[in-house]
């Protein structure tokens, strides 16, 4: 179509032939080539078919040479009697050496990216010209697709399972080589990490509790632990507390300084030193804060796309969020439906950004009516589809919240109510109220 319109299509015949010829001349370069280029990066159909054949043979550890490739092309039904054999010979003839194969692959990838940019711009132009959406929606569509290109991903479309298998295999190999006990970003709480396997890419993780139980505190603890342990960027959206309040909480938790002392400025010499140390620690993290209470999921998504090396998004809290930029009339649309839409959009955001999204949520009063007040999935306030969208749901329960006379008023149960990565169950944390912080609690005591 572009050629019919007189537009030059970005592609390099020499580079595409150089990649294929190198694979045929020296199969030892195949592992590097398979990591550097994909079949969809080839512009010419014939080149794409040959690469897909070689890719499949490499995946199943089959020997790769001109004869075996031609035979496999016949099996796959992409062999052309008049031209395939001659073209394979031509590929080997025009390739001077396989030593420069990664240079050829880089050119192929670069030209493919330029074609994809043109496609995104054309699609956005058509949508904008059609008048089928508001300007903000068209802008969001364009931004999503450009972000996907930056992340080396494609929005939508069918992907061959062989390509996914190779990606999963490479991921497993990387995990095995890393020696890390869990695949995801750690929460900083030992037993919780073991149960949920850390916070994994694309996961929507919900932490739910009654007001005053400590859901903001545990969210901030997890965010700070993630930023310190991974060095990645963490984005925090607080719809309830100001940036200054959040940082004060961070300083209290990190410096182990009573929150009341920080709020009044009545600090001892040792506490001032702790404040200085905590400020240095926070200053080295890549935590970004936004305390705009009117933010929508789309706006959060757009801001997160601009952050480099994003590792985690935290939102405090679900029921305060708006579904869209315009005011919703809840008489026409139930609040349950609005919250359901928000939870679905957050799950889409987690998948698109390819990072875990940690969202805090409020529990309804339903558990207050029961003798056993431990949270259940059905207690999620205005639950709608929250429990089906979330990959992991955790509830906080502290007996001391309801009774000062209990044996361990600071012992907190973190109850995993839903877990797509393993089993549900209960782990224990210690609530340190004066530092607004949670700590691991060792419940295994040795006798004597």
Structure commentary:
Helices cover 48% and strands 13% of the residues. It has two domains: 13-163, DNAb Helicase, Chain A, CATH 1.10.860; 183-440, P-loop containing nucleotide triphosphate hydrolases (Rossmann fold, 3-Layer(aba) Sandwich), CATH 3.40.50.300. A nine-stranded mixed beta sheet has the order 3-2-4-5-1-6-7-8-9, sandwiched between helices. It is built from 17 helices and nine strands. The protein has 448 residues and is α/β, with parallel strands linked by helices. It is elongated. Residues 325-332 have low confidence and may be disordered.
Concise overview:
The protein is of the alpha/beta class.
What do the pLDDT scores average to? Answer: 84
The overall strand count is: 9
The share of residues in helices is 40-55%
- The quaternary structure here is single chain
State Rg. Answer: 27 Å
Give the spatial strand order of the biggest sheet: 3-2-4-5-1-6-7-8-9
First-last Cα distance: 81 Å
Q: What is the global morphology?
A: elongated
Reported CATH architecture of the largest domain: 3-Layer(aba) Sandwich
Structural class: alpha/beta
Name of the CATH superfamily of the largest domain: P-loop containing nucleotide triphosphate hydrolases
SSE ordering: HHHHHHHHHEHEHHHEHEHEHEHEEE
Number of continuous helical runs:
17
Biggest pleated-sheet summary: 9 strands, mixed
Task: Give the domain tally.
Answer: 2
CATH class of the largest domain: Alpha Beta
Q: If you consult CATH, what is the topology of the largest domain? A: Rossmann fold
% residues in beta strands: 5-15%
């Amino acid at each position: 179509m572009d050629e019919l319109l007189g537009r030059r299509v970005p592609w390099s015949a020499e580079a595409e032939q150089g990649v294929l010829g190198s694979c045929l001349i020296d199969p030892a370069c195949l592992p590097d080539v398979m990591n550097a280029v994909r079949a969809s990066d080839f512009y010419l159909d014939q080149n794409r078919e040959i690469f897909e054949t070689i890719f499949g043979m490499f995946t199943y550890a089959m020997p790769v040479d001109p004869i075996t490739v031609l035979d496999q092309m016949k099996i796959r039904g992409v062999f052309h009697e008049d031209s395939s054999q001659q073209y394979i010979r031509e590929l080997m003839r025009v390739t001077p050496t396989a030593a420069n194969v990664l240079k050829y692959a880089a050119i192929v990838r670069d030209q493919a990216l330029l074609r994809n940019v043109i496609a995104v711009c054309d699609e956005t132009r058509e949508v904008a010209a059609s008048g089928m959406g508001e300007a903000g929606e068209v802008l969001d569509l364009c931004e999503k697709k450009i972000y996907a290109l930056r992340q080396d991903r494609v929005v939508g479309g069918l992907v061959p399972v062989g390509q996914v298998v190779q990606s999963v295999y490479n991921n497993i190999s990387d995990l095995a080589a890393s020696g890390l006990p869990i695949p995801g970003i750690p929460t900083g709480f030992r037993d919780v990490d073991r149960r949920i396997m850390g916070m994994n890419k694309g996961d929507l993780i919900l932490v739910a509790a009654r007001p005053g139980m400590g859901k903001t505190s545990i969210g901030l603890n997890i965010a700070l632990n993630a930023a310190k342990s991974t060095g990645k960027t963490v984005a925090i959206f607080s719809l309830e507390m100001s940036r200054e309040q959040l940082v004060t909480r961070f300083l209290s938790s990190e410096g182990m300084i009573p929150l009341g002392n920080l709020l009044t400025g009545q600090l001892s010499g040792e506490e001032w030193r702790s404040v200085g140390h905590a400020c240095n620690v926070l200053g080295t993290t890549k935590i970004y804060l936004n305390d705009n209470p009117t933010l929508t999921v789309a706006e959060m998504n757009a801001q997160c796309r601009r952050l480099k090396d994003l590792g985690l998004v935290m939102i405090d809290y679900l029921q305060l969020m708006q579904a869209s930029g315009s005011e919703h009339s809840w008489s026409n649309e139930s609040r349950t439906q609005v919250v359901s839409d928000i939870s679905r959009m957050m799950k889409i955001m987690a998948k698109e950004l390819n990072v875990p999204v940690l969202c805090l949520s409020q529990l309804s009063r339903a558990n207050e009516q029961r003798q056993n007040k431990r949270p259940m999935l059905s207690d999620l306030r205005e639950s709608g589809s929250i429990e089906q969208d979330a990959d992991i749901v955790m509830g906080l329960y502290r007996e001391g919240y309801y009774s000062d006379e209990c044996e361990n008023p600071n012992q907190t149960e973190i109850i995993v109510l839903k877990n797509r990565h393993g089993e549900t169950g209960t782990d224990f944390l210690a609530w340190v109220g004066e530092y607004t912080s949670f700590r691991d609690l060792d419940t295994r005591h040795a006798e004597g």
